[in-house]
């Protein structure tokens, strides 16, 4: 390094100093440019043609009507869409600027709850903030992430794992006849945070909660390429079946890997119905029967033995396999009976499992078979 | 003499090495920081700053911990000029070196000018729509428009940088002073529930009917903050109340005072132009039987009343339109293929990298050629 070269004293050094400081000043001065207030005249733009609908019966909704469905934090302007099967008795309302779906749910006492579906781009991963926003709306103190997780139930909506919350005011708010309850689900789909929320008097929301959960499981998130349909039923949804749920079956949040789950019977004699689907043949009939056998503490059986126990079930669109197994539930240690059905389709397989105490399973078996036969793929 | 020491310091080749090492470390740290801060904020905090600041999480204070891109760039430039001046000896055999260094100086200055002077915005058009302005994605402005005149609107825009100062704005065209009471860099505005207990963010317009929730900065790419502001309008005879402005409120809020009518709205910062662009047709061709884009292009009509220009132009990827000092690139499109998004770049120094790279290339060729001839001459002589 020739850093120690002696600098010859000459007039050019003065020029050098001037250049140095000029360079520094030239570098810094443009950085200090400021944006200022502007005033200008423009021709009047065309008036907007769209008028936001008004929902006078919902507090605060007129304000929301003047709000854009401005996807928070998003640079795009297109609103995500869904399809669903609306439960009977729910009255569909105009969606409005923020909502992509809206319902009014009346009860026989003249009370009603409000159901809203709001997609917000850019708010994914903000479940805690939004949960606290709901708590704030009910006058509840803010909670932390741990409290939120404890209060959440898992729910799968169109294959996306979300959280289901049930919140209620501590007291009856002034002017109301009873406490206000919110049952809501939050799920992130790609870059969109979806909020499904039922708000209303405690009695209405509590009574409608099973229908709300069942409705959530009918929801299909549409890609932007999917043709627009204002409110399509599940029949229009791609490869999602329509079924007739027997009376007395209660829809509950499905766990991971399940499409839907129902329970039926009393607490002591409760049977459960799990519905799942897999791509291809889902591992095949033999492997799935052996999986059920392991869950019941039974040794794996050979393919010939399983074939002998298998019954065939005629469906309108396919031929299904059915099997009945008895054993001990590995998780509960209770004697358990399983009625399992596999429906192989062209590119996927559906699995239906009725399980629980033998008495409960036997009493629901006929309804279960009718249910499986009712499914339209 | 202190000035001489300063000169020696700035012309030191050790400083050159130190600055290059610091530059490498800065690039490394800035790249890592993109994970937590996102591209836009990492660029601003590491490269478009004089210092990189750090503070404990949750603390309101921050201290400079590392030189930022502007400081390193400025020091490199000074060092380059000073060192060249110090060690320069007039000699035609070093003319290539001089050219290379001049190219580097131009490159540094050009990039600084690009960073400081270039403006990027977007122009989103649906088919058949015409606009004479583009919008800056990540900056907002508060627009107060007088709509009293049936033919023209008079617009007063307050840019985000002024809103951030939370001061007072008075212009002669408005009968009131705008006091920016609060500015939120990112906040959500939602409908106010009937049983909400917290005070409303504002008492006029939609203010009493909404809830304002401040949010942390958005860090993901492709997303941005949605700022909000609470402003108070004050006339000589008293206050007109407080108004909330946010992009969430899509309908402009009306203000009537003294027989004049105004609207108030927060919107992306607009850059008006003396010409108009109308989207005639957007094409999105795919490879047959697939969804793989083959080509997308916008056919636009450019109208400039200043010089009577009225011509159709097709803008495609890698084939932008250059007009009036701006470049229009095909950037994106609407999912339904009925709209197009053009990126609009105004960069007064866009030619400097081309000139600088040409100078460096010529300098390198010159220097190597001189060395080659001198080497060949020595061989011939021996």
What does this molecule look like?
The complex is a heterodimer of chains A (377) and B (382). With 377 residues, chain A is an alpha+beta fold. Chain A folds into two domains: 65-215, Mog1/PsbP, alpha/beta/alpha sandwich (Protein Transport Mog1p, Chain A, 3-Layer(aba) Sandwich); 241-374, Protein Transport Mog1p, Chain A, CATH 3.40.1000. Helix content of chain A is 24%, strand content 31%. The longest helix of chain A has 17 residues, at 12-28. In chain A, 32% of the residues are buried. Chain B has six helices and 18 strands. Chain B starts with a helix and ends with a helix. Chain B has three domains: 2-118 and 351-381, no CATH class; 122-131 and 272-346, no CATH class; 137-270, no CATH class. Chain B has helices at 2-10, 13-47, 69-87, 95-117, 160-164, 352-381; strands at 51-54, 63-67, 119-126, 130-146, 152-159, 168-169, 177-184, 187-191, 210-214, 228-235, 238-246, 253-257, 260-286, 293-304, 309-316, 321-323, 326-333, 339-346. By secondary structure, chain B is an alpha+beta fold. In chain B, a hairpin with an 8-residue loop joins strand 1 and strand 2 (63-67). The radius of gyration of chain B is 27 Å and the shape is globular. Chain B is 32% helix and 39% strand. Strand 1 (38-43) of chain A pairs antiparallel with strand 5 (152-159) of chain B, so a sheet runs across the interface.
